[in-house]
Amino acid sequence: MKTKKELKLEYKEMKPPMGAIIIKNNLSGKIFIDVSKDLKSIINRHRFQLKMGMHKTKELQQDWNEYGEEVFSFDVLEELKYDEKEEKIDCTKELELMKMIWLEKLKKDGLVQIYEK
Question: What pTM value is reported for the model?
Answer without folding.
Answer: 0.82
